[in-house]
Amino acid sequence: MSASDAGRAGLPAPVAAAAELAAGCLAWRVADRPIRRLQDLIPSHPMKRKHLMTHNRRPLLALALVLPMALAACSGGPAGPAGPAAGDAYQPQADTLQVYSAQHIEVTEAVAAAFTKETGIPTQVRDGQDSSMGHMIVEEGDSSPADVFLTENSPAMTLVEREGLLAPVDGSTLDQVREGLAPSSGLWAPIAARSTVLVYNKDLISEEDLPSSMMDLADPKWAGKWGAAPGGADFQAIAAGMLAERGEAETRAWLQALADNAEVYQNNIATMKAVNAGEVPVGIMYHYYWYRDQAGDRQGSANTQLHYFGGEDPGAFVSLSAGGVLASSDMPEQAQKFLEYVTGPKGQQALVDSGSMEYAVGTGVESAPALPPLDKLEAPAVDVSTLNSDKVIALMTDVGIL
Ligand SMILES: [Fe+2]
Fold first, then answer.
1. Which of 171, 184, 208, 348: disulfide with 365, CB 3.0–4.6 Å?
2. What is the 8-class DSSP label of residue 89?
3. Over the stretch 165-203, which tens digit does the pLDDT of each residue have?
4. Which spans are transmembrane here (predicted)?
5. How much distance in Å is there from the Cα of 190 to the middle of ligand 1?
């Protein structure tokens, strides 16, 4: 994607420039090794001086929003296409439901295909990443082609919600979702859930030596012994949960400890593999990457086990993938029908059958049997409407992670 393509896609100039950087990443592909700071990924690119070493926060924030896209584009892993940067080929088709999706693309495509088969309503999926796609919808405003937005984590949806761009979700749709999960606003619906976990190397650390809280990792005794992928929307949702629950001062201090003491990886899978390989004893990630690996060849996780913090710890945060209907949709009935399908028995079963190992959130649909029950995870009670990943990105920028 060139900067001019990004401009055509309606991105602000710094974001467009960063998107160009993402597209250019093939020239500096890096391995799944720890990186101290995300800008270490771009050792000689002029963007480093121009947009990272500046006191002006706006370009920094803009780059931070697009960096996950750059990382996904460069990881060569299963993160999928490079978010809205892939939109240079995007041409919305007429009379086709436009699904903007930051959820894992395989999951969205599986569910959308099942929906079209069931209803005859054609769908077109535009693939992206949480933060950059949420900001793209805000930029596009009422002229957005999007009818439906699906996120990987709910903060990207609240970003759009705060701008008043969502239509109320049909009550019959919200009624299908397990109690206590939907936001009080009724402006979006949960479509899947994922749990924070601590992955640990069984040869390097015993269960009794694990931290009792994720907050304990800020202790200097854990310096150099933990890993995380703070550039990704998954981690940023976890930090947004911490921010909502523990407040800014505590979250800032914890993120500072991460900046100073943790090994930074490109994504959840790289974190898991590093723990498996013994680079660090423990790492923070979401549960489903581990269960997928375990269900496969176990090459990335054979030496590891998962620890669930429980006890309403910030490390037990459960993130919701979200679905919303754009108020500007020119196919509102079909869009509501899509969301009803996604949260209903068939859509939720399609989620489970996709092998994503995320939790189903619809009533009456069982998640994969390998998973501990969602209602036994002792997740902290966080008001999902207050989650703010932009604030997290700003804090992470301040402490030098991004
Ligand atoms: Fe993920």
1. 348
2. G
3. 999 999 999 999 999 999 999 999 999 999 999 999 999
4. none
5. 15
